[in-house]
Amino acid sequence: MNFPFYIARRYLFSKKSTNAINVISGISVIGVAVATMAMVVTLSVFNGFHDLVASFLTSFDPQLKVTPVKGKTAAADNPKLTAIKKLPQIDVVTECVEDQALAIYNDRQAMVTVKGVDDNFDQLTHIDEILLGDGEFELHAADMHYGILGVRLAEVLGTGFAYDRPLKIYAPRREGQLDMTNPEEGFIEDELYSPNVLFCVRQAKYDKNYIITSLPFARRIFEQQGMVSSLELRLKPNSNFESVKSEIQKIAGNEFYVKDRFEQQDETFKIMKIEKLIAYFFLTFILIVACFNIIGSLSMLIIDKRDDVVTLRNLGATDKQITQIFLFEGRLISSIGAVIGIALGLLLCWIQQVYGVVKLGSSSGAFVVNAYPVSVHPEDVVIVFLTVLVVGWLAVWYPVHYFSRRLLK
């Protein structure tokens, strides 16, 4: 057995001549444990919100989205897009045209994003799961085009689930100059009718701004005949996602972006990652403060064990081994605190997952979920454990060497 480690273990668990040393050692372990527990719980809550947002986006966003690098649109018969459509791993392909327009209903108006899609859009995404109302997913009937509004946009325009009169859509003409004497000529006007449903992604970006309609309607009002804003794809089951994505990117080259669901919402998830990283650094700073208790405990222990040090030297122990005893003492305190903290953190996360003890608000239904979402990622637990060990071990290195030189002479 390692001699310094054996002595350090005996010192940690044995009763000292001064009871305050035992108390401070216990406080040191508790301080490290509490800081570790806070890191596990906080990072798990951030993971919970991340997974919650991701689950909402999968109901609207496609598995893969191909968009032009330059400009808003590209020709639908572009050879590269055609080659992507013909890949055997592709199950569903939807052409989309998307741009901004003005929506007016009665005396209310709002700037909206009109997204024209193919009839197979419900096969591409899980939009059927987020529809509200008595109708079903339907984009047109004969020459009549339907518009499915986001639930918050319907509230802004006052349409309700089923608007009884046409929703007027205005888009600026792409060519020609605006005649200020007759400004209406500078816009293309068309109408959308209600399919008796709204969609609810539970994301303001979509629910407050988007209208889903047919592709021919969008092409006509935006004057984009034969063009697409994006090509949205769904892969066949059991396809190797990363392999197919890489193959599509090779075909697309530098002319098109190929984005998965997370890359399509890169800004949202990037902000969440930054917030999580900032929380990690703040909690690490708190952990560093907690480690000052270990320094105090070790300094008092060194003073208390001066007679033991003389005995160990007489028995042949070197100064290096004696220093290692107190280093191991500090490392044991941080390691025990880390293990206890992680265990308590995982326990609290499990309680929150099962029972939802900490609520988001007092009124039920005011939020998407009633309780704080929690998701434990194993890699975060490993990072927290390593962080505690590194911080704890570094915190004791200098004080132990300093006090060893000053007090053990």
What can you see in these coordinates?
The longest helix is centred in the N-terminal third of the chain and has 39 residues. A hairpin with a 2-residue loop joins strand 3 and strand 4. Helix 2 packs across helix 13 and helix 11 packs parallel to helix 14. With 409 residues, the chain is an alpha+beta fold. 51% of the residues lie in helices and 19% in strands. Strands 1, 3, 4, 5, 8, 9, 10, 11, 12, 14 and 15 form an eleven-stranded mixed beta sheet that branches. The chain has a two-stranded antiparallel ribbon with strand order 2-13. Strands 6-7 form a two-stranded antiparallel sheet. The relative contact order is 0.19. It starts with a helix and ends with a helix.
Blueprint of the fold:
Elements: H1 3-13, H2 19-57, E1 64-68, E2 74-75, H3 79-85, E3 90-105, E4 108-117, H4 121-124, E5 131-133, E6 140-141, E7 144-145, E8 148-150, H5 151-157, E9 167-172, E10 187-192, E11 197-199, H6 204-207, E12 210-214, H7 215-221, E13 227-228, E14 230-235, H8 241-252, E15 256-260, H9 261-264, H10 266-290, H11 292-304, H12 306-314, H13 319-355, H14 378-407
Parallel strand pairs: 4-12, 8-11
Antiparallel strand pairs: 1-14, 1-15, 2-13, 3-4, 3-9, 3-14, 5-11, 6-7, 8-12, 9-10
Helix pairs in contact: 1-13, 2-10, 2-11, 2-13, 2-14, 11-13, 11-14, 13-14
